[in-house]
């Protein structure tokens, strides 16, 4: 293996030892192939991130700040949240296959990933990361929109997520409650972008896990009012109209392609 590519393997091996070593005897995971170790590490990390972030956020907005951010009649039932958790946990093993595959491709030199920021310099790092995020934003917008527009995709994949279509059925736990293939398709732009623009490996891995935090955030029904962020206020409208606010991190794609609906304007119409 090329010495440069070994840096990627050393980094993922470090993550494997860090996570797997903390939860499992080495005799359980040490003999596994490297890629399978990566999948198991991603699975454990994904489950922990989902439950820790979900429980902390629900405890904060539904109990510590009860009726401050969410009206009493908009708080989801425990039954609704348990259903969301069940759907997410069935999909989690499959979700973790995508980052495991991306790591395999990176470690084998198939992508434009680089190992150290010093390889390109800080200015190039920022520019490349910005281009990467634009590609991801564009890709997720259109993937999400086509999951609505192509009827079989909606019926057999995306409808699983859209049973949560009112404030009192949405919660941070709904963020990963997708059909497994649906969740993978919406994350695919993160991998496709690796073939199009140089991207820092550690930043790519971090952004994959940030997805779990972000999807929890945009399903809490709290409108943060931070322009141009596609926050929960926008995404709640998406869950009630089905035809607007397909974007991911920002409102730009919806603005450019005519599908933006502003929650403040919606509230004004109701008054």
TrEMBL record:
Coarse class of the protein's main subcellular location: membrane
The keyword Lyase is assigned to this record: no
Gene Ontology biological process terms from the UniProt entry: sterol biosynthetic process
Listed GO CC annotations: membrane
UniProt key word Lyase: no
Domain Fatty acid hydroxylase: 130-259
Transmembrane regions: 43-62, 122-143
Lineage: superkingdom: Eukaryota
MF-aspect GO terms: C-5 sterol desaturase activity; iron ion binding
InterPro entries, sorted: Fatty_acid_hydroxylase, Sterol_Desaturase_Related
Subcellular location: Membrane
Pfam families the record matches: FA_hydroxylase
Record keywords: Membrane, Transmembrane, Transmembrane helix
Family per similarity comment: Belongs to the sterol desaturase family.
Designated name of the protein: Delta(7)-sterol-C5(6)-desaturase-like
Species per Swiss-Prot/TrEMBL record: Nicotiana tabacum (Common tobacco)
High-level lineage: Eukaryota, Viridiplantae, Streptophyta, Embryophyta, Tracheophyta
């Amino acid at each position: 293996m090329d010495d440069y590519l070994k840096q990627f393997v050393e980094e993922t091996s470090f993550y494997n030892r860090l996570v797997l070593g903390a939860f499992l005897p080495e005799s359980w995971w040490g003999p596994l192939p490297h890629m399978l170790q990566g999948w198991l590490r991603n699975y454990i990390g994904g489950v922990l991130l989902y439950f820790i972030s979900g429980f902390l956020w629900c405890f904060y907005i539904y109990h510590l700040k009860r009726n401050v951010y969410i009206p009493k009649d908009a708080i989801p039932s425990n039954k609704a949240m348990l259903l969301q958790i069940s759907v997410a946990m069935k999909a989690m093993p499959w979700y973790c296959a995508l980052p495991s595959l991306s790591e395999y491709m990176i470690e084998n030199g198939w992508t434009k990933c680089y190992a150290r920021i010093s390889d390109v310099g800080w200015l190039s790092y920022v520019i490349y990361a910005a281009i990467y995020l634009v590609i991801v934003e564009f890709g997720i917008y259109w993937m999400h929109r086509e999951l609505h527009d192509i009827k079989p995709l909606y019926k057999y994949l995306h409808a699983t997520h859209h049973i949560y279509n009112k404030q009192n059925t949405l919660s941070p736990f709904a963020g990963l409650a997708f059909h497994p293939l649906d969740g993978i398709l919406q994350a695919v732009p993160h991998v496709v972008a690796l073939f199009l623009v140089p991207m820092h490996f550690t930043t790519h891995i971090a952004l994959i896990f940030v997805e779990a935090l972000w999807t929890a955030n945009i399903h809490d029904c709290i409108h943060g009012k931070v322009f141009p962020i596609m926050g929960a206020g926008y995404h709640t409208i998406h869950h009630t109209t089905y035809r607007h606010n397909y974007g991911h991190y920002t409102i730009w794609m919806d603005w450019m392609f005519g599908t933006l609906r502003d929650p403040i304007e919606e509230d004004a119409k109701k008054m």
